[in-house]
Specification:
Blueprint: E1 4-10, E2 14-21, E3 26-33, H1 40-58, E4 65-69, E5 72-73, E6 77-80, E7 87-90, E8 101-105, H2 106-116, E9 126-130, E10 138-141, E11 144-146, H3 176-180, H4 182-192, H5 202-210, H6 214-238, E12 242-246, H7 247-250, H8 254-267, E13 276-278, H9 285-297
Helix pairs in contact: 2-9, 4-5, 4-6, 5-6, 6-8
The structure holds zinc ion (ZN).
Length: 318
Protein backbone atom coordinates (compact mmCIF):
# COMPACT_ATOMS: atom_id res chain seq x y z
CA UNK A 1 0.00 0.00 0.00
CA UNK A 2 1.09 3.55 -0.72
CA UNK A 3 2.68 5.48 2.15
CA UNK A 4 0.50 8.60 1.77
CA UNK A 5 -3.02 9.88 1.20
CA UNK A 6 -4.16 12.91 -0.77
CA UNK A 7 -6.11 15.38 1.38
CA UNK A 8 -8.08 18.28 -0.06
CA UNK A 9 -10.00 21.09 1.64
CA UNK A 10 -12.29 22.66 -0.96
CA UNK A 11 -13.43 26.20 -0.20
CA UNK A 12 -15.46 28.69 -2.19
CA UNK A 13 -12.43 30.67 -3.35
CA UNK A 14 -9.49 28.29 -3.04
CA UNK A 15 -8.63 24.69 -2.27
CA UNK A 16 -5.80 23.49 -0.05
CA UNK A 17 -4.23 20.15 -0.80
CA UNK A 18 -1.64 17.98 0.86
CA UNK A 19 0.04 14.60 1.00
CA UNK A 20 -0.04 13.10 4.48
CA UNK A 21 1.72 9.90 5.57
CA UNK A 22 0.44 7.13 7.83
CA UNK A 23 2.30 8.75 10.75
CA UNK A 24 0.81 12.19 10.06
CA UNK A 25 3.76 13.77 8.35
CA UNK A 26 2.71 16.39 5.81
CA UNK A 27 5.11 15.76 2.95
CA UNK A 28 3.67 18.29 0.53
CA UNK A 29 1.12 21.10 0.44
CA UNK A 30 -0.27 23.09 -2.43
CA UNK A 31 -3.10 25.49 -3.18
CA UNK A 32 -5.29 26.10 -6.20
CA UNK A 33 -8.09 28.55 -7.04
CA UNK A 34 -11.66 27.21 -7.02
CA UNK A 35 -13.06 28.17 -10.45
CA UNK A 36 -16.56 28.74 -9.07
CA UNK A 37 -17.40 31.30 -11.76
CA UNK A 38 -16.91 28.63 -14.46
CA UNK A 39 -19.59 26.37 -12.97
CA UNK A 40 -19.72 23.19 -10.89
CA UNK A 41 -18.38 20.88 -13.61
CA UNK A 42 -15.21 23.00 -13.86
CA UNK A 43 -14.77 22.80 -10.08
CA UNK A 44 -15.07 18.99 -10.17
CA UNK A 45 -12.56 18.84 -13.06
CA UNK A 46 -10.13 21.10 -11.18
CA UNK A 47 -10.38 18.89 -8.09
CA UNK A 48 -9.67 15.79 -10.24
CA UNK A 49 -6.58 17.31 -11.81
CA UNK A 50 -5.37 18.70 -8.47
CA UNK A 51 -5.63 15.22 -6.90
CA UNK A 52 -3.87 13.73 -9.92
CA UNK A 53 -1.03 16.27 -9.72
CA UNK A 54 -0.57 15.76 -5.98
CA UNK A 55 -0.53 11.95 -6.40
CA UNK A 56 2.06 12.25 -9.19
CA UNK A 57 4.20 14.50 -6.99
CA UNK A 58 3.99 11.83 -4.27
CA UNK A 59 5.22 9.16 -6.68
CA UNK A 60 2.03 7.31 -7.66
CA UNK A 61 -1.42 6.27 -6.51
CA UNK A 62 -2.21 7.22 -2.89
CA UNK A 63 -3.61 4.80 -0.30
CA UNK A 64 -6.77 6.90 -0.19
CA UNK A 65 -8.25 10.31 -0.83
CA UNK A 66 -10.08 12.52 1.67
CA UNK A 67 -12.06 15.57 0.63
CA UNK A 68 -13.62 18.29 2.78
CA UNK A 69 -16.34 20.08 0.80
CA UNK A 70 -19.05 22.65 1.63
CA UNK A 71 -22.80 22.09 1.66
CA UNK A 72 -24.78 18.92 2.22
CA UNK A 73 -22.42 15.94 2.18
CA UNK A 74 -22.37 12.23 2.86
CA UNK A 75 -19.22 10.06 2.89
CA UNK A 76 -20.05 8.97 -0.67
CA UNK A 77 -21.48 12.07 -2.37
CA UNK A 78 -21.55 15.87 -2.42
CA UNK A 79 -25.33 16.33 -2.42
CA UNK A 80 -25.71 20.10 -2.64
CA UNK A 81 -23.73 23.30 -2.31
CA UNK A 82 -25.30 26.72 -2.81
CA UNK A 83 -21.77 28.15 -2.80
CA UNK A 84 -20.35 25.98 -5.61
CA UNK A 85 -23.61 25.02 -7.31
CA UNK A 86 -23.17 21.27 -7.60
CA UNK A 87 -25.82 18.63 -6.96
CA UNK A 88 -25.44 14.90 -6.33
CA UNK A 89 -21.79 14.48 -7.30
CA UNK A 90 -20.60 10.94 -6.39
CA UNK A 91 -17.30 10.88 -4.46
CA UNK A 92 -15.73 8.80 -7.24
CA UNK A 93 -16.28 11.68 -9.72
CA UNK A 94 -13.66 13.70 -7.84
CA UNK A 95 -10.98 11.04 -7.96
CA UNK A 96 -9.15 10.25 -11.21
CA UNK A 97 -7.67 7.05 -9.79
CA UNK A 98 -9.05 3.76 -8.60
CA UNK A 99 -8.44 4.46 -4.92
CA UNK A 100 -10.81 4.57 -1.93
CA UNK A 101 -12.25 8.02 -1.23
CA UNK A 102 -14.24 9.59 1.61
CA UNK A 103 -15.98 12.96 1.64
CA UNK A 104 -16.72 15.14 4.65
CA UNK A 105 -18.55 18.40 5.32
CA UNK A 106 -15.96 21.19 5.50
CA UNK A 107 -16.65 22.44 9.02
CA UNK A 108 -17.27 18.97 10.45
CA UNK A 109 -14.03 17.74 8.88
CA UNK A 110 -12.18 20.63 10.53
CA UNK A 111 -13.92 19.66 13.77
CA UNK A 112 -12.78 16.06 13.32
CA UNK A 113 -9.19 17.28 13.01
CA UNK A 114 -9.52 19.45 16.14
CA UNK A 115 -11.03 16.42 17.92
CA UNK A 116 -8.35 13.89 16.94
CA UNK A 117 -5.30 16.17 16.64
CA UNK A 118 -6.06 19.62 18.00
CA UNK A 119 -7.72 21.56 20.81
CA UNK A 120 -10.23 18.78 21.49
CA UNK A 121 -7.68 15.98 21.62
CA UNK A 122 -8.57 14.79 25.13
CA UNK A 123 -12.22 15.90 25.00
CA UNK A 124 -15.18 13.66 24.22
CA UNK A 125 -17.90 16.23 23.55
CA UNK A 126 -17.38 19.79 22.39
CA UNK A 127 -18.48 22.43 19.90
CA UNK A 128 -16.02 23.53 17.23
CA UNK A 129 -17.09 27.02 16.21
CA UNK A 130 -15.17 28.69 13.37
CA UNK A 131 -16.26 32.31 13.05
CA UNK A 132 -15.35 33.57 9.59
CA UNK A 133 -17.31 34.87 6.59
CA UNK A 134 -20.15 32.82 8.02
CA UNK A 135 -20.67 30.81 11.19
CA UNK A 136 -21.20 27.05 11.26
CA UNK A 137 -20.42 24.67 14.06
CA UNK A 138 -19.22 21.10 14.27
CA UNK A 139 -21.08 19.28 17.01
CA UNK A 140 -18.57 16.74 18.35
CA UNK A 141 -20.14 13.83 20.22
CA UNK A 142 -17.95 11.00 21.55
CA UNK A 143 -15.06 12.39 19.53
CA UNK A 144 -16.89 12.36 16.18
CA UNK A 145 -18.70 15.16 14.31
CA UNK A 146 -22.47 14.78 14.27
CA UNK A 147 -24.39 15.96 11.19
CA UNK A 148 -27.92 15.16 12.30
CA UNK A 149 -30.74 13.47 10.43
CA UNK A 150 -30.41 15.27 7.09
CA UNK A 151 -26.87 16.67 7.29
CA UNK A 152 -27.91 20.16 8.33
CA UNK A 153 -26.79 19.59 11.94
CA UNK A 154 -24.44 22.20 13.39
CA UNK A 155 -25.92 25.27 11.63
CA UNK A 156 -25.62 27.33 14.80
CA UNK A 157 -24.97 30.45 12.69
CA UNK A 158 -28.66 30.45 11.77
CA UNK A 159 -30.03 30.16 15.28
CA UNK A 160 -32.28 33.21 15.72
CA UNK A 161 -30.79 35.30 18.52
CA UNK A 162 -32.66 38.58 17.97
CA UNK A 163 -36.07 37.48 16.60
CA UNK A 164 -37.10 41.07 15.86
CA UNK A 165 -33.71 41.84 14.35
CA UNK A 166 -32.06 42.12 10.97
CA UNK A 167 -32.88 39.79 8.05
CA UNK A 168 -30.29 37.11 7.27
CA UNK A 169 -29.23 36.11 3.76
CA UNK A 170 -30.66 32.64 4.54
CA UNK A 171 -34.22 34.01 4.65
CA UNK A 172 -34.68 33.98 8.41
CA UNK A 173 -34.67 36.94 10.80
CA UNK A 174 -32.06 37.76 13.44
CA UNK A 175 -29.62 34.89 12.91
CA UNK A 176 -26.41 34.70 14.95
CA UNK A 177 -24.39 34.98 11.73
CA UNK A 178 -26.04 38.32 10.91
CA UNK A 179 -24.48 39.84 14.05
CA UNK A 180 -21.35 37.89 14.88
CA UNK A 181 -19.61 36.59 11.76
CA UNK A 182 -16.41 38.38 10.78
CA UNK A 183 -18.11 39.77 7.68
CA UNK A 184 -21.17 40.87 9.72
CA UNK A 185 -18.97 42.76 12.19
CA UNK A 186 -17.21 44.53 9.31
CA UNK A 187 -20.45 45.23 7.43
CA UNK A 188 -22.32 46.53 10.49
CA UNK A 189 -19.48 48.90 11.35
CA UNK A 190 -19.12 50.18 7.79
CA UNK A 191 -22.88 50.74 7.48
CA UNK A 192 -23.11 52.80 10.65
CA UNK A 193 -19.82 54.69 10.52
CA UNK A 194 -20.19 58.31 9.46
CA UNK A 195 -16.66 58.61 8.15
CA UNK A 196 -16.30 57.75 4.47
CA UNK A 197 -12.96 56.16 5.29
CA UNK A 198 -14.68 53.50 7.39
CA UNK A 199 -12.72 50.30 7.94
CA UNK A 200 -14.01 47.27 6.12
CA UNK A 201 -12.41 44.31 7.90
CA UNK A 202 -13.37 42.63 11.15
CA UNK A 203 -9.72 42.84 12.15
CA UNK A 204 -9.87 46.62 11.91
CA UNK A 205 -13.09 46.73 13.91
CA UNK A 206 -11.37 44.59 16.57
CA UNK A 207 -8.44 47.01 16.68
CA UNK A 208 -10.83 49.97 17.02
CA UNK A 209 -12.71 48.15 19.78
CA UNK A 210 -9.44 47.63 21.66
CA UNK A 211 -8.62 51.33 21.28
CA UNK A 212 -11.99 52.43 22.68
CA UNK A 213 -13.84 53.56 19.54
CA UNK A 214 -17.48 53.82 20.76
CA UNK A 215 -19.16 52.53 17.59
CA UNK A 216 -16.73 49.62 17.25
CA UNK A 217 -17.28 48.75 20.92
CA UNK A 218 -21.03 48.75 20.38
CA UNK A 219 -20.83 46.48 17.30
CA UNK A 220 -18.37 44.18 19.10
CA UNK A 221 -20.63 44.05 22.15
CA UNK A 222 -23.63 43.07 20.01
CA UNK A 223 -21.56 40.27 18.43
CA UNK A 224 -20.57 39.03 21.90
CA UNK A 225 -24.18 39.27 23.06
CA UNK A 226 -25.40 37.28 20.04
CA UNK A 227 -22.74 34.61 20.59
CA UNK A 228 -23.52 34.33 24.29
CA UNK A 229 -27.21 33.75 23.51
CA UNK A 230 -26.51 30.99 20.99
CA UNK A 231 -23.83 29.36 23.15
CA UNK A 232 -26.07 29.40 26.22
CA UNK A 233 -28.66 27.42 24.25
CA UNK A 234 -26.01 25.03 22.96
CA UNK A 235 -24.62 24.53 26.47
CA UNK A 236 -28.02 23.84 28.00
CA UNK A 237 -28.91 21.39 25.24
CA UNK A 238 -25.67 19.43 24.86
CA UNK A 239 -23.54 20.09 27.98
CA UNK A 240 -20.23 20.31 26.09
CA UNK A 241 -16.91 19.98 27.91
CA UNK A 242 -15.58 22.99 25.96
CA UNK A 243 -16.33 25.40 23.14
CA UNK A 244 -13.44 25.63 20.68
CA UNK A 245 -13.37 28.98 18.87
CA UNK A 246 -11.73 29.22 15.46
CA UNK A 247 -11.82 31.26 12.27
CA UNK A 248 -10.94 34.88 11.63
CA UNK A 249 -12.82 36.48 14.52
CA UNK A 250 -11.17 34.15 17.07
CA UNK A 251 -7.83 35.68 16.01
CA UNK A 252 -8.91 38.60 18.19
CA UNK A 253 -8.04 36.31 21.13
CA UNK A 254 -8.93 37.66 24.57
CA UNK A 255 -10.76 40.64 23.05
CA UNK A 256 -13.43 38.10 22.11
CA UNK A 257 -12.97 35.25 24.57
CA UNK A 258 -12.85 37.25 27.82
CA UNK A 259 -16.14 39.19 27.40
CA UNK A 260 -17.79 36.15 25.82
CA UNK A 261 -16.85 33.85 28.71
CA UNK A 262 -18.10 36.47 31.18
CA UNK A 263 -21.39 37.02 29.33
CA UNK A 264 -22.01 33.30 28.89
CA UNK A 265 -21.28 32.67 32.55
CA UNK A 266 -23.77 35.34 33.64
CA UNK A 267 -26.44 34.02 31.31
CA UNK A 268 -26.34 30.54 32.85
CA UNK A 269 -27.78 30.47 36.37
CA UNK A 270 -27.76 26.90 37.67
CA UNK A 271 -24.70 25.48 35.96
CA UNK A 272 -21.19 26.53 35.02
CA UNK A 273 -20.36 27.64 31.50
CA UNK A 274 -18.01 25.36 29.56
CA UNK A 275 -14.50 26.75 29.08
CA UNK A 276 -13.72 28.55 25.82
CA UNK A 277 -10.63 27.36 23.99
CA UNK A 278 -8.76 28.60 20.97
CA UNK A 279 -8.65 26.18 18.02
CA UNK A 280 -5.19 24.65 17.55
CA UNK A 281 -4.96 23.87 13.83
CA UNK A 282 -5.88 27.18 12.25
CA UNK A 283 -6.42 27.14 8.51
CA UNK A 284 -4.95 23.63 8.24
CA UNK A 285 -7.84 21.98 10.14
CA UNK A 286 -9.86 21.13 7.02
CA UNK A 287 -6.90 19.64 5.17
CA UNK A 288 -5.76 17.62 8.20
CA UNK A 289 -9.32 16.38 8.73
CA UNK A 290 -9.43 15.37 5.06
CA UNK A 291 -6.20 13.41 5.62
CA UNK A 292 -7.92 11.53 8.45
CA UNK A 293 -10.81 10.75 6.08
CA UNK A 294 -8.36 9.58 3.40
CA UNK A 295 -6.73 7.13 5.84
CA UNK A 296 -10.15 5.98 7.06
CA UNK A 297 -11.12 5.33 3.43
CA UNK A 298 -7.95 3.25 3.12
CA UNK A 299 -9.07 1.12 6.05
CA UNK A 300 -7.36 2.77 9.01
CA UNK A 301 -10.24 3.79 11.30
CA UNK A 302 -7.79 4.81 14.04
CA UNK A 303 -5.86 7.25 11.82
CA UNK A 304 -4.44 10.19 13.72
CA UNK A 305 -4.68 8.77 17.23
CA UNK A 306 -0.95 8.07 17.38
CA UNK A 307 0.10 11.17 15.42
CA UNK A 308 2.46 13.30 17.44
CA UNK A 309 1.39 16.87 18.23
CA UNK A 310 4.59 17.70 16.34
CA UNK A 311 2.51 17.12 13.22
CA UNK A 312 1.12 20.57 13.94
CA UNK A 313 4.59 22.04 13.67
CA UNK A 314 5.22 20.68 10.21
CA UNK A 315 4.76 23.16 7.36
CA UNK A 316 1.24 24.58 7.22
CA UNK A 317 -0.67 25.06 4.03
CA UNK A 318 0.43 28.34 2.52
ZN1 LIG B 1 -29.63 32.85 8.75
Amino acid sequence: MSSFVVALDVGGTSMKGGLVTRSGEIIRTDRRATPRDRGPAAVVATIRSFIDDLATAGGGAPAGVGLAVPGLVTADAALYSANIGWRDVPATDFVPLDVPVMLGHDVRTGGLAESVLGAGRELSDFLFLPIGTGIAGAVILHGEPYGGNTGWGGEIGHIPVFPEGEPCACGQIGCLETYASASAVARRYSTRATSSAAPVTAEQVAALTASGDPLAMEIWDEAVEALSLALASYTLLLDPSAIVLGGGLAEAGSLLSVPLAERLGKRLAFRDAPPLRQAALGMSAGMLGAALLGWRAAGFADAGITWSPDVLKTPRVA
